[in-house]
Amino acid sequence: MDKIDLLIVDDDEDDFLLTRDLLEDISSGHYRIEWASSFDEGRRILSLNRHDLCLMDYQLGANDGIELLAEAHNCGFSGPVILLTGMHQSEIDMKALEAGAVDYLVKENLSSEQLARSIRYALSRRDMEKERVERMKAEAENRSKSEFLAHLSHELRTPLSAILGFTELLMNNQYDSESLGHLKVVHRNGKHLLGLLNDILDLSKIEAGKLELEYKDVFLSSFLTDIYFLMHGAAVDKSLDINIECPNPIPRKVRTDPTRLRQILLNLLGNAIKFTDYGQVSLTVSAYQHDMRNWLSFAVKDTGVGIQEDVAKDIFHPFVQAKNSYAEPRAGTGLGLAISQQLTQRLGGSIAVSSEPGEGSEFSFSIEIDAENFDELCDFSLESVEHRALSSDIPKLSGRVLVVDDLPDIRSLIGHFVRQCGADVIYARNGQEAVKAMELDAQSSVGRIDLVLMDIHMPVLDGHNAVAKMREKGFQQPVIALTAAHMKGDMDKCLKSGFTGYISKPVDRLQLYQNLAKFLPAQSLSAQVVGTRTIAVVDDDRDALKATASLLELIGWRVLTAECGEQAVQVVQDNNVDLLLTDLNLPDISGFQVAEKVTSFKPDLEIILLSGEARDREELQAAGISASLLKPVSLQDLKAL
């Protein structure tokens, strides 16, 4: 039994000796006792905080123990204090407890049993308090870790949204082969950074027990086809063959977590491609029944560098990477296999590896599946995937457009876009010239102005005052503001001034075409843009907001943007919005609060949450949110909307 360090503060040596003897009666040699014979000596020793417990006399010369008791914890003593007094007085008892004593004992007739009981109580209370403090500290650290990871996820995913979004946007435009190659390098490395981020966050969630599975019905052939095409490009880049083989029929539909199963397969296939320079990578899938349960078996085999036997036993540990004489270390965190093993276990299975250095490796795992109709089997074949080019047809329009901007390059660029649609263009350098052009147009027989595209910030007469004067003079045609403003007040000011709508700068060509097609007559019915749906996108990061909006416009959506929650609510209230896509972390209110406010006046609006971490389905449904997307979102994610 460990000895207890005990301090006795008493200015009476006889009382000290009596107390020491009582302690010896309790348990000989169990206590290491130190004596402080004065108030000042007691304060000095207490400040060293080297004792487990203090027995303190009430009367210490000219001072009393309650005064020292009150100072004890301030001067650094962390243990419990038991106050000893010559006689019982309820008033002193209360003062002692208020000052922080754990007990109050009267010396007269004090027995060793009574003293032992008081000491046991005091030390037990100390241990419980320590445990409580440690638990609270651990909980606080866990909360801080979770908050840090959530913040880190948001802060890293937001710039990645802009990087990947704009890169995808550029890749979908016409570029020479060299420029397109550079863009692919940027996009590939951006995706690599995203993969590293996902690995670190997933492992943290698994270790914290916060990784949730979401079981869904999965059509197996379609699922495997997606896996094939996701990895096909990486294999082709290294001149490798990649195959998916199902030697026997497989269930048409199974129930599992497709996201996590896909993550395991992409990790294993990605590693196989990474560590293979010649030959092929194959995925073999089979279904079987064992112990009255249904199983899916997966085996990823490569003809790569292989793994040494002494390395293979540790390869599923976090941050371990295979390094041997056959291969240089490859980029990565060394988390992919550790995460794959954890996810496989969560899905009810296990994972194993067999390898021959220099010949290749095979990673295999099985997971338990819920297949209602396990007898409904079908032969696997890669489903045809229709790669449709994004529609970038320029609408064929007629009419006359006035372009107003003080910058000649911007005037020329916008005029070029307008002329590509087939419309006629006239120009003005500022608001005053625009008003004059409108007045001349009213007197001219050449043709009226059908639409005005006007900058806001211009010399001589700005856009707000110019459109106000035009409206005063009876101009009824649409006037579209060209503005870099994104704040609610600025956009409201545009509409209040008399603008019909606004286009964000820098001007996106597709967005401009959509606005032109909305207000100008088409040359033919086939060229009209019809059925355009409207989506409101909310994100406080302007780069990420612009990237997401541009990708949505690229696939035909009319996009309204907002940079804060209240602005988003106003946008939905003021416009016929079909879908709301909102970030979770906004500067004023959260995405959940946005959903709550919007559904109060538009309960049927479909709302999608953008988040840096996966959200619980029940939490989403309770807030009126249909689903969540993990940032950064890709063009493929947005198409799925």
List the strand order in the largest sheet: 2-1-3-6-7
What is the overall shape? flat
Looking at CATH, the homologous superfamily of the domain at 216-378 is Histidine kinase-like ATPase, C-terminal domain
Determine the strand fraction and express it as a percent band: 15-25%
Q: What percentage of residues falls in helices of 4 or more residues?
A: 40-55%
Helix and strand composition category:
alpha/beta
Give an overview in words.
The chain is α/β, with parallel strands linked by helices. Among the domains are: 4-110, Rossmann fold; 216-378, Heat Shock Protein 90; 396-526, Response regulator (Rossmann fold). 45% of the residues lie in helices and 21% in strands. Helix 19 (617-622) links the parallel strand 25 (606-611) and strand 26. The relative contact order is 0.07.
What is the topological layout?
Blueprint: E1 4-9, H1 13-26, E2 31-36, H2 39-48, E3 53-57, E4 59-60, E5 63-64, H3 65-72, E6 81-85, H4 90-99, E7 103-106, H5 112-171, H6 177-207, E8 216-219, H7 220-237, E9 241-245, E10 250-251, E11 253-256, H8 258-274, E12 280-290, E13 293-302, H9 309-312, H10 336-346, E14 350-356, E15 360-369, E16 377-378, E17 400-404, H11 408-420, E18 424-428, H12 431-443, E19 451-455, H13 463-472, E20 479-483, H14 488-497, E21 501-504, H15 509-519, E22 534-538, H16 542-554, E23 558-562, H17 565-574, E24 579-583, H18 591-601, E25 606-611, H19 617-622, E26 627-630, H20 635-640
Parallel strand pairs: 1-2, 1-3, 3-6, 6-7, 9-12, 17-18, 17-19, 19-20, 20-21, 22-23, 22-24, 24-25, 25-26
Antiparallel strand pairs: 4-5, 8-11, 10-16, 12-13, 13-15, 14-15
